[in-house]
Fold this protein.
Amino acid sequence: MEELTLTIDGKSVTVPKGTTVYQAARRLGIEIPIFCYHDRMPPLGACRMCLVQVERMPRLQTACTLEAQDGMVVHTDTPEVRQAREGILEFLLINHPLDCPICDKGGECPLQDFTFRYGPGRSRFVEQKRDFPKPLPLSPVLMLDRERCILCWRCVRFCEIVSGDDALEGFDRGFLSQIHAVPGKAGPSKFIGNTIMICPVGALTSRTYRFRSRPWDNSSTSSACMHCGLGCSIELDVRSNEVVRVRPRENPSLNDIWLCDLGWFGYDFVNHPDRLVAPLVRRDGVLEEASWEEALDLICGKLREVRDPRRVAVLAGAHLTNEEGYLLQKFFRKVVGTNNLDFRLDATPWGASLEVPWGMECAVRDVEGADAILLVGSDVTEEYPILWLRMKKAVDGGAALLLLGPKEPEVARFARTSLLVRAGQEGAVLDALADLVLGRRGTPEGQGRAVAPEEAARASGVEVDALEAVARILSEAKRPLLFVGRMTVDGPGGRLALKALNRLRTSLEAPLNILRGRGNARGLALAGLLPDRLPGPAPLVDAEARARLERLWGGPVPPARGHTALEMLEACRRGEVEVLYVAGADPAMEVFSRRVWEEARAGVRFLVVTSLFPTETARQADVVLPALSFAEKEGTVTNLEGLVQRISRARRGPGQARSDGEIVAALAWRLGHVLEYGSWEEVFAEMEELVPGLAVGARLPLREESRGAEEPVPPSLPSAPPEGEDHLLLVTGDVLFDRTDVTGRCAGITALAGTASVSLNPADASRLGVRDGDLVAVSGEGRREVLVMARVSTAVPPGHAFLPLGFWEAPANILVLPDRPYTVVRVRALERV
């Protein structure tokens, strides 16, 4: 790399060619004030605040746009520069209100700081300042005080360059220029919180944080976001034991400096008054408050009554820490003697979720270096939005984005090709695609083939030419990446899809990334919270691994494979589970079919639930124990790429709530076993002996094993709905803004989520007499229905209806029958708006 040397304020610095003067000055620790410039976006030179004097140049220059030259001599503090800075600041303050005492940016405002350091002591302007009605809501969470805006364009350029959603734009010119939301946008931005962070003044503020605190009143604690599986690095700002704000913590290898809006605004649940504060025990059919001693003694009594430990089962939620997951499986394996442990509650019996490890083979940071990205069955901005920012950088650099699935994702406008397929046919299409790629790479076409391209095209509704175009792009790519999401992995074609993707992975030598799991799902797998895996995760059948664990624990480990989540629920239905322990999960809402849970619950004699809130499952329990949230406990979590991060206690928990680790330690003590540790570090140290490479900050590779079913499963599709009738195939999936027991208690997320809606293709909507915005009833074959708003969209293929998961008032799982890979629904209009 060519380098050059320049001098700034008498100090010499050597930098790579292409470096700007501003960047070179930063290397020397010399401050040059800026407003419009941001180092994650190309320079603009709009605010003129960074003016410097360069010898042999007749005028002052903007340091953020000026490329350094060899031998250049720069001065940042001459009388001319100081005068120019004073003039710029004086000009900016002509109409800027001096309302620092009530401005949310006060104390962390660059305009305030630069005025103090570089501005004039007084203004020569005496005219009345411009005034606007305030605040102006730009979204359910974003407020604009127009008189504070200095038109630096950072927010507009973020929406254009970084997120690509064009949520904000500049309107009018000159004195009338102002920032505003783009009229007619289909939905809210998923990254708008970042514009608040990069706004250099208090023009953009958060509706949920506005007037709640000042920065010097907050105590900040580093943590990791637990909403989706990426685990973005964050700071929790707490005032008077209340989480008042969440901010991104810079982590170049993960979320860089950004957060999605679920991370920005999804924190209110921690402080919510609905939090459970004391144990509850069912007496005479009613849950009543009890002491910890009574609740724990009751649980231990029921466990002692169980003759066969295989009649005890554990379902866990993905918001436990690594250490809690480890202690949970240690307690139930060593003390109780059961391997019936699982956290994969939302898997389907016809999908492939239970057959493959969830997670990413490549690092999040490496995504932006891809030259071709195949994204299958995942609406990435709805499920893992920060991952999209990495993908977009790749696309901006020339990478081909290739989409395939039964619902077109929001990012389709950036795609080179988007294949919208009939539900369940992704496997057939991918199998044909794998053959085409293998043929292009010199492998005999058709090897291992389950479906011919023409057959796949007929079954799926895609064109053979489109398939061949995708195969050509993948074959020619030097750095391809493969991603597959829940919509496909858990769909009827999931097994065939995983087998085809495994063939593609081998042929292309490309990482295969299974975008599956929220919170700490990857960490719970590492901790051994699986029916056939020990911590590591080592196979349960590995006698050496089991012996090593028994030596460490000082006791036997049951050798027989336990039940998966689905097998546990079936065993519950048959009355073969006497005690079901649910830790931090809500199977009533999370299990793929509500009927499966209802029948399972009816067959369980004793149900224990640890929870933050009185969830649907908790209301059906015999004992409910109040648990701590991620903001109230210490430990580590592991994200989808295997990155181990530290979370720290930012506030005290409510009432008598305890961590899940403390709960199982107390149970163990009552059953005559010591399972107490002095700190999370002691648990982590024990895990280090079992998990290769485990360390805070380490990235653990995904274990090597087959990514697909051994034998291809022939694709199938039920008969097309008869012409003129209202039968539609139901497609479900995650959305970023939903209304679960957690997100439904976050004011910002509730406002962003709005009401649940069903998406219909325009052809189906027209045939059914449904218009956009109508209130409709979606009914399944089981005579159950949900009431939602209709959204007419080409994102779903004809003959399909997309219903989001995660809305307590419209639970999609009540429509799904346990024995039907395909769910057929009817949609009828009830009311027009």
Remarks:
- Residues 705-724 have pLDDT under 50 and may be disordered.
- The CA atoms of residues 241 and 588 lie 32 Å apart.
- DSSP finds 24 helices and 35 strands in the chain.
